[in-house]
């Protein structure tokens, strides 16, 4: 039987030329919306074969198991309550995602951060032009799709990015419209991140400083995402299916919704009904060092006619210094035995990042590329 021909939306036009034409406007996806487009350009249309792999865009239901909503009781030092939080976080990390409330960060700071992301992206184009770049070494990087020229499709999203820790940018390198709140917000992220790493360490049965001593979260990268309303939301995504490459991600989202997780081969909405809540994702490297005790999870953002959707992601990862290329991460010895051999090769954060950049365009899991055979546990 002759197989049916594959339909590929990327055949029949010069994709690279159209990518370049879009990029050179420096207006991003918002510029398309401002221009009144009613049909999305071909560079944003999903390849049908990938769309089928993802499943239908409208199949998300209420989670049968429920995304854990954990009350951190930030101002309560009751040891019994802390023990309950540690237990809840440990169970949630087996799924790979949970939400945190009562975390101690003022709602005024959270609201101002979301407002400033929206305000930056909605400035006049001329004001934003000075920050539009594809040079990732800049203190502040604004563009549409950081991997615009390297992936087989384009996300319906604009983003600004800044490395905020351990060495924050000089204030004058940040846009005035969001400068003050970015610096304040990132300090709160450091504190909440430190607390989370303590709790996760304890949930693993380790000393509370174990993960911080391994330099898992000294680095922090802040991303301010802007997802404009989309005229054809069924044809594109705001963010492709992916896992996060670091250790933990703290995501703040507004009320619009659109964030989904992949659980047991079905997509489910992540509720956006708890103002001030942070969605916490387990990253690939936390899965690696826990030898699959804790799991990273696929997530994506669907496009919507409503909007704009605003979110702020804080990636907690090793700092980009000498440790970036030299410190090795491997399954922690407490989780390795003859009965439970190591599952992964050791890697540096840079090594894993390079592998991710090579492979993620296929939307396939990255960790399996570091899988070990059971005969490879002799050094443990």
TrEMBL record:
Q: Which segments does the entry list as coiled coil?
A: none
An example GO biological process term is: coumarin biosynthetic process
| Gene3D superfamilies for this protein | B-lactam Antibiotic, Isopenicillin N Synthase, Chain (2.60.120.330)
Domain of life where this protein originates: Eukaryota
Keywords recorded for this protein, A-Z: Iron, Metal-binding, Oxidoreductase, Vitamin C
Any one GO molecular function term: 2-oxoglutarate-dependent dioxygenase activity
Q: Which InterPro entries match?
A: DIOX_N, IPNS-like_FE2OG_OXY, IPNS-like_sf, Oxoglu/Fe-dep_dioxygenase_dom
Per the database record, which ranges form the Fe2OG dioxygenase domain? Answer: 218-318
**What family does the entry list?**
Belongs to the iron/ascorbate-dependent oxidoreductase family.
PANTHER family (alphabetical): 1-AMINOCYCLOPROPANE-1-CARBOXYLATE OXIDASE HOMOLOG 1-LIKE (PTHR10209:SF884), OXIDOREDUCTASE, 2OG-FE II OXYGENASE FAMILY PROTEIN (PTHR10209)
Q: What is this protein called?
A: Oxidoreductase
Species source reads: Lithospermum erythrorhizon
């Amino acid at each position: 039987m002759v197989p049916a021909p594959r339909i590929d939306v990327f055949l029949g036009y010069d994709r690279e030329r159209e990518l370049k034409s879009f990029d050179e406007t420096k207006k991003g996806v918002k510029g398309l919306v401002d221009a009144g487009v009613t049909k999305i350009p071909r560079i944003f249309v999903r390849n049908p074969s990938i769309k089928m792999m993802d499943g239908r865009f409208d199949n998300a239901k209420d989670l049968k198991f429920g995304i854990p909503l954990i009350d951190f009781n930030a101002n309560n030092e009751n040891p019994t309550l802390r023990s309950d939080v540690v237990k809840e976080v440990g169970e949630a990390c087996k799924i790979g995602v949970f939400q945190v409330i009562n975390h101690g960060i003022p709602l005024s700071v959270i609201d101002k951060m979301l407002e400033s992301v929206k305000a930056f992206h909605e400035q006049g184009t001329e004001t934003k032009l000075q920050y539009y770049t594809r040079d990732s070494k800049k203190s502040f990087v604004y563009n549409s799709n950081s991997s615009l020229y390297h992936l087989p499709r384009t996300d319906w999203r604009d983003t600004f990015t800044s490395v905020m820790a351990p060495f924050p940018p000089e204030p004058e390198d940040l846009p005035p419209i969001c400068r003050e709140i970015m610096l304040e917000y990132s300090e709160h992220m450091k504190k909440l991140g430190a607390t989370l790493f303590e709790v996760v360490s304890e949930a693993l049965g380790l000393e509370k400083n174990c993960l911080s001593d391994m330099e898992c979260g000294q680095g922090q990268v802040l991303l301010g995402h802007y997802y404009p309303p989309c005229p054809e939301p069924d044809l594109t995504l705001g963010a492709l299916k992916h896992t996060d490459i670091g250790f933990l991600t703290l995501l703040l989202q507004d009320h619009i919704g659109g964030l989904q997780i992949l659980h047991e081969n079905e997509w489910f909405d992540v509720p956006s009904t708890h103002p001030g809540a942070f969605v916490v994702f387990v990253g690939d490297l936390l899965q690696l060092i826990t030898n699959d005790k804790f799991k990273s999870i696929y997530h994506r953002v669907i496009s919507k006619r409503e909007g704009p959707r605003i979110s702020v992601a804080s990636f907690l990862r090793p700092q980009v210094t000498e440790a970036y290329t030299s410190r090795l991460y491997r399954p922690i010895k407490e989780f390795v035995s003859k009965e439970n051999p190591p599952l992964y090769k050791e890697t540096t954060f840079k090594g894993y990042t390079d592998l991710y950049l090579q492979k993620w365009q296929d939307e396939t899991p990255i960790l399996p590329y570091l899988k070990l055979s059971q005969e490879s546990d002799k050094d443990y």
